[in-house]
């Protein structure tokens, strides 16, 4: 249904004020955008286009840019920490519905402005994700000097987050499902299909060297 809606009016993809702001999209889109910027920033055609279209801002200069992999490695723990902080608001608001539970830490929202008001005790699924994000930050901290080449810390961060999000999503109530999986889980599987073989392959190369 979501695909059909975007197919009818592709411009709705850009209407972020109507929903569609998801962490996975922000992570992947941010990586693609940042990588693209690093690759083209010092290219002759980019500098020429900038000089032609934005001449009033001054002549652009070539700047020293980091390697995409090393920059991604630097950003990875900060990204997970930021995601964990963002989840605090989700826990407080209760806008992400989760499955009911009889466990002692089940959450009941009583504030009248909460979307989850008057729902039975539910799993604090986003709190689980918050905790898992912080665990990943710790793992990355201890692994950062052991993973080679550049970019593998970011790949590890993606794979661990995708793994955790995949299983935690079984506790969340999502509107759209495909083959018994929601959209986030499908994206997580795609991430794992790419990052896990990459990590294994790069690790084998490092051992050989």
Features:
2% strand; two-stranded antiparallel ribbon; mainly alpha
Note the run of SSEs as H and E.
HHHHHHEEH
Number of domains: 2
Radius of gyration (CA) equals 21 Å
Low-pLDDT runs of 5+ residues are none
Helix vs. strand class: mainly alpha
Description:
With 209 residues, this protein is mainly alpha-helical. It has two domains: 1-65, no CATH class; 66-209, no CATH class. The protein is built from seven helices and two strands, in the order H-H-H-H-H-H-E-E-H. The chain has a two-stranded antiparallel ribbon. Helix 2 runs antiparallel to helix 4, helix 4 packs parallel to helix 6 (152-168) and helix 6 packs antiparallel against helix 7 (183-208). The chain is globular and about 60 Å long. The N and C termini lie far apart (50 Å). 19% of the residues are buried. The model has no long low-confidence stretch (mean pLDDT 85).
SSE blueprint and pairings:
Layout: H1 2-8, H2 23-40, H3 44-53, H4 68-93, H5 125-143, H6 152-168, E1 177-178, E2 181-182, H7 183-208
Antiparallel strand pairs: 1-2
Helix pairs in contact: 2-4, 4-5, 4-6, 5-6, 6-7
